[in-house]
Structures are given as C-alpha cells and as structure tokens.
Design goal:
This protein has 72 residues and is of the alpha+beta class. The chain contains 1 helix and 3 strands. It has a single domain, classed as Ubiquitin-like (UB roll) (Roll), CATH 3.10.20. β1 and β2 form a beta hairpin.
C-alpha cells in the first residue's frame, strides 16, 4: 500500500473585472491526496468540472506538500 502524499495545487480564478476592463483574479490553494503532481492537478480540474459552476480558471502551480498527514 502506498503512503499518502499531499500536493498543494494553486488555481487562479477570474472573479470579475475591474473598471478598466481587466480580469480580477483570485488565487486558491487546494491540498490534494494523490500519488503524482499530474494526478493532483487532474483531481482539482475534475472537482471544478463536477461542481457545475461556470468560472474561468487555470491551474497555475502544483508542488508536493510538506504535510505528512491529515487528522480529521
């Protein structure tokens, strides 16, 4: 059995526009339990698609987290 690995995936969301017409963006960081960076990114994209909310976003980064476990 593989030990859990956690990745921090950063998504950049367009939440509106400024008076000048530029996109107003917000960054959100998600902690994902996955085995690879690619899997973590794909899981965030899938979560956005499954939410049913139509919002412009892009995955702007992903890295392995130093978190070793989550206690719920």
């Amino acid at each position: 059995m593989n030990e859990p690995k956690y990745f921090e995936v950063t998504a950049e969301l367009v939440i509106g526009s400024t008076k000048g017409g530029r996109d107003k963006k917000q960054k959100e960081v998600y902690l994902v339990n996955a085995q690879t960076v690619t899997e973590a990114e794909a899981r965030v994209v899938q979560d956005f698609e499954n939410s049913g909310v139509n919002i412009d976003y892009k995955i702007s980064g992903a890295k392995q987290s130093r978190i070793i476990g989550v206690i719920e």
